[in-house]
Amino acid sequence: AYGNATDCIYTIIQTPLQSLTGNLPAFIIIILIAQLLWFFGIHGSMTVLPILFPIWLSYIGDNTAAMAAGKAIPHVLNIGLWDLANLGGSGATIGLVILMFFKAKSEQYKSFEPVIFGLPVILNPIMLIPFILCPIVLVCLGYALIQFGIVTAPIGILGLGSMPPLISGIMQGSLSWGIFQLVAVVISIIIYYPFFKTLDNQALMNEKGDQHE
Predict the structure, then answer these.
(1) Are 42 and 134 in contact (CB under 8 A)?
(2) Are 187 and 138 in contact (CB under 8 A)?
(3) Residue 209: partners with Cβ closer than 8 Å, 6 or more residues away
(4) What is the tens place of the pLDDT at every residue in 137-182?
């Protein structure tokens, strides 16, 4: 009835899954699940991405063709939005790392460690709020700017998440998206700042206490 096996699989499996990534609330739920898994020590991204990658791969052809024709990107919620949610690492922790580098007063946080496991973020109730909040804020803001035509949506090319902000945005076909990535770095710093400040002050007090013992 479906003509061939590929169309059968697409209709029965992939089409319903696309509905999970085709609307913003579902996309946010996926991010939330990934972040909560990370908090409990499970690699959240690698848990949800195997489900999402085949869907996002199917978006690239349509998005590239639309961009070449000068039309709006049809599949906005793609890997480009996921990379935004994970700017600098899971939880959009680029702002946290910048704060550690420039603002840390304690010796513990002046020295760089693996952020998720070394700070740690895992099982750290203070960091849970920004770790969940920051990706959601960035995605919602980015999505809104796309809908209002202020920035151009990324094409959704896979494998650019490790590229620096601005450069990855340009490689996604949009200078405006690259500029927004720089704005997102600032937002990440603002969101993480009060929580990092709390941790840093606690660590500084502990270090001073150890020195007086």
Answers:
(1) no
(2) yes
(3) none
(4) 999 999 999 999 999 999 999 989 889 999 999 999 999 999 999 9
